[in-house]
Amino acid sequence: MTAPTSSRPRRSEDPAVRSFLRLVSPRSVTAAPGEGGPAPLLVAAVDDLPELPGDAFVAALSRETSAGARVLAYHGRRDDDRGVVLTAALVRSRGLAVMRGRARHDRPLPSVRGPLGAHERLLERTYGLQLAGPPPRRLDDDILDPRDMWFWPAAKGPTAQGRRAEPGQLVDRGPLRLYCRGDRVRAVELRALPERDVEAVLCTRPLGHLPALIETLRGEGSVARAWAHALAIEGLAGGPFDLACAVHRGVGLELERVACHLAGQARLARAIGFGVGAAEHERLHAVVRDLLMRLCGSRHGHGHVRPGGVREPIGAARLADVRATLADFRDAFAGCSADMMGLRSVLDRLDGVGAIARRDAHDLGLVGPPARACGLPHDLRRDLPGELYRRHALDVFVEYDGDCLARASIRAREIEAAVAWILACVAEAVGARPTALAGLAPRHLAIAAVEGARGPIVHLLETDRDGRLLDYRAQDPGMFAWPGLAAALRGGSLTDLQVCGHSFDLSLAHDGRGAR
Amino acid sequence: MLTVLRGPRPAPRALPDPRAAVTPGLAGLPVLKDSSCPTACSACLPACPAQALARTSTAVALDLGRCVFCRDCAAACPEKHITFGPEHRLASATRRGLVVGPERRAPPPVAADAALRRRFGRSLKLVRAVLGGCDGCDCELRACGDGHFDMGRWGIEWVDEARGADGLVVFGPVEAEADDEQLRRTWAAIGGPRLLIATGACAIGGGPHRLGPARARGFFAENAPQLYVPGCPPHPLTFVDGLLDLLGAP
Ligand code: SF4
Ligand code: SF4
Q1: Regarding beta strands A95-103 and A51-53, do their DSSP bridges make them parallel or antiparallel, or are they unpaired?
Q2: If residue A76 lies in a helix (H) or strand (E), which one and from where to where?
Q3: Do B135 and A217 count as a contact with CB atoms less than 8 A apart?
Q4: InterPro entries from the xrefs (chain B) (predicted)?
Q5: Burial, A183: exposed, middle or buried (Cβ in 10 Å; 0-12, 13-18, 19+)?
Q6: Model pLDDT, residue A17
Q7: pLDDT of residue A335
Q8: What is the mean pLDDT of residues A125-150?
């Protein structure tokens, strides 16, 4: 007699044993040792960069990716008379690299898809570039069936078809459409969100206004964005590197990461009905945001980073405050996290839900904690450590199961690692000073990348022959998370929608908010 | 059981008294020096990314409805006339009340509305209208209802459906006609006596990313908000305090 097969995710006999094994299994990957290693900033004179024709550019790009390079950003600038200038920023084992190419309006550009899919969709949408080659993976038509019902869980506003919403059906414009039979999600369709082109405004504004504008761009992570901006501007202006200043910024970045992860854990706890854990995470979230506020005046880290240095230096009083607050926080979080990640009911609810295999995660181009939960050790603090993370290496964790439990446990570990990192090196932030910056170098390109809470934040700046900004691209990791969520939901149960969404740090309609 | 009872009391999860809470370190209410500015000086004006400053005959006036609290003006002022204090009570019942300057040091306190108190004093359900913008306002507004700031203790809650709500909280830039349309539809879906609140520099003043004067703001021309909560993003206590003042809560 053959055993009945089941489509449910494979589960081990005793979840407690399995969970125990999983919580001790993550491997810590430390930063590459040695001097002169890869830095998170690349500055190059535009005239020194060979400009490949479109076909050759894409061929070279796919050669690079098959050789193991990771594409951080793939961007196009409309150059009216001669087509679109393409720029790709790659992380190779030796560091950051850049490639330039030119696509013509009248010839379709070959497409690579795979991990580049999200970038290519953006190119098509934003620049109307035609891409030839295998089409993006469409809805699985073969498995669709007229008996399936479909809905937009986060789309209560006018839909893509222009259907007028009834009164009260409002507020959210989400990018997922779910096709379900009963409570099984059979297929997920991802649609493009209308985007406001806020970046176009950036090149028209005075340089001094940019930090405040960058901090209020779309997406969470003001410190990470401001740091990427400051790095790029300092690179173009030839500012000196100051370790104290880098530590100061790193402290803000890690506090921001802790706050984002805590908010995510709290939402996840609420989604599974674990109210006590949620409330405790929310209290700790307020503690960390308030500490950030005492360092720079804003709970969201606005003003913590300014090009050329820091504005609110850390003195003895602030240093003592950081140490005392984080020492208390560390103990409180250890208890609260043990409560949540040690509860059998919590583990049971999260284990095996929304799993993504490592191979799929790679093909989807996942970044940040969701990628690390699938066993991909992508973290710019390790891949492009620069002077700061070479001196103060930070533990980067990976998990291998790629499910909601893995994503939650990665976050919990990253919170602990971030707090330990701050406590170990915050003393070196004392004495950071602002410096005056010269003008920007003309006809240069700067690419700066910072690992934010949800993945790499990449800023790509180009100057014209007068040293004014010609092009600005600020890339948010949010664009990679939605395809990941779609993949995690496919084949699962509809009741896992909220849990999966929160585990990717994305929220759907029932929370009353839009996509980010 | 006995060990649990004898053990140390856990720290309270909710903020004990939000009405009395202070926010040390916050860059809140701007403090503009009394001494008048030199006639020829306008160094702070071009430094402001949000066009929130205006020169008056003797000093400067600062529009909290536009200010993103970047403090670049404080750095630019050679006379050090502008600083930012930790006061978080910034909400105002009128748009004009948000402009601070020599004649008005702070937004006038929000007066309690007896009718609103009667209706919503015990239970108020609010819905948020997401119009884009950065994530800041949304994060802080959610925090108002979480286990720490816990405005639920006054019966104020977030709901998902406009049909079940008593009030609408708008944040994010109201830029396009479509945004106005969306707001009108949500507003229409909220039946009966209702409350309109505008939150953050984007919704109140058009936001730092706006190019020139705000274009489509028809919705706010038709319906004046009963409460303006400035900030970028506002501190959760700014929102909670302003709302409780409006409802006349103790
Ligand atoms: S703090 Fe406000 S008034 Fe001052 S420069 Fe920034 S936005 Fe303008
Ligand atoms: S007002 Fe400020 S915090 Fe709120 S959405 Fe606009 S930019 Fe973001």
Answers
A1: parallel
A2: strand A70-79
A3: no
A4: 4Fe4S_Fe-S-bd, 4Fe4S_Fe_S_CS, Complex_I_20kDa-like, NADH_UbQ_OxRdtase-like_20kDa
A5: exposed
A6: 36
A7: 92
A8: 63
Please report which confidence band the pLDDT of residue A429 belongs to, taking 50, 70 and 90 as the band edges.
very high
- Alpha-carbon Rg for chain B, nearest whole angstrom, is 20
- Helix (H) or strand (E) run with residue A397 in it: strand A396-398
Are B147 and A282 an interchain contact pair (Cβ–Cβ within 8 Å)? yes
Ligand nearest to the CA of A214: 2
| Cα A303 to ligand 1 centroid, rounded to whole Å | 11
Q: Using alpha carbons, select from B102, B88, B128 the residue that is nearest to residue B245.
A: B88
pLDDT in tens, B93-127: 999 999 998 888 999 999 999 999 999 999 999 99
Contact A429, A457 (CB under 8 A): no
Q: ipTM for the complex? A: 0.93
In this prediction, residues A496-509 reach a mean pLDDT of: 81
> Integer distance in angstroms from the first to the last C-alpha of chain A?
51
What CA–CA distances, in Å, run from B244 to A272, A396, B108, B237? 31, 45, 15, 10
- In sequence order, the 6+-apart residues with CB closer than 8 A to the CB of A303 are A215, A296, A297, A311, A312, B27, B70, B71
The gap from C-alpha B194 to its chain's centroid, in whole angstroms, comes to 19
- The pTM (predicted TM-score) of the whole model is 0.89
Backbone angles phi, psi at B4, to 5 degrees: -60, -45
Of A280, A297, A512, the CB nearest to B128: A512
Residue A246 has pLDDT above 90, yes or no: yes
Confidence of residue A171 (pLDDT cuts 50, 70, 90): very low
- What is the tens place of the pLDDT at every residue in B198-228? 999 989 988 887 765 555 578 888 899 999 9
Q: Which residues of A touch B24 (CB under 8 A)?
A: 294
Chain A residues with CB under 8 Å of B209 CB are: 198, 201, 213, 216
Q: Is B60 in the pocket of ligand 1 (CB under 6 A)?
A: no
A300/B25 CB distance under 8 A: no
Task: Give φ, ψ of A3 to 5 degrees.
Answer: -75, 145
Q: Which CATH architecture has domain B114-247?
A: 3-Layer(aba) Sandwich (3.40)
Q: Where are the domains of chain B?
A: 114-247
CB of B230 closer than 6 A to ligand 2?
no
Q: Is the peptide bond before B233 cis (omega within 30 degrees of 0)?
A: yes
B217 in Cβ contact with B210 (< 8 Å): no
Residue B134 has pLDDT above 50, yes or no: yes
Of A150, A186, A191, give the one whose Cα is nearest residue A173: A191
Average pLDDT over residues B17-25: 91
- Considering every ligand atom shown, identify the ligand nearest to the alpha carbon of residue B171 and give its number: 2
Contacts of residue A2, Cβ cutoff 8 Å, sequence gap at least 6:
none
The whole-number pLDDT of residue A265 equals 95
Q: Do A509 and B160 touch (CB under 8 A)?
A: yes
- Which pLDDT band, with edges at 50, 70 and 90, does A23 fall under? very low
- Which carries the bigger pLDDT value, residue A135 or residue A431? A431
Q: For B168, which DSSP code? A: E
Class of domain A220-476: mainly alpha
The distance of B197 to chain A (nearest Cα, Å) reads 16
A31 has a pLDDT exceeding 50: no
Task: Please tell me whether residue A109 adopts helix, strand or coil conformation.
Answer: strand
- The count of other CB atoms within 10 Å of the CB of residue A441 is 16
Domain edges within chain A: 3-132, 147-155+165-192+477-516, 220-476
- φ/ψ (deg, to 5) at B70: -85, -20
CB pairs under 8 A between A and B: 155
Confidence tier at B1 by pLDDT (50, 70, 90): low
Residues 6 or more apart from B137 whose CB is under 8 A from it? B171, B172, B199, B200, B202, B203, B233, B234
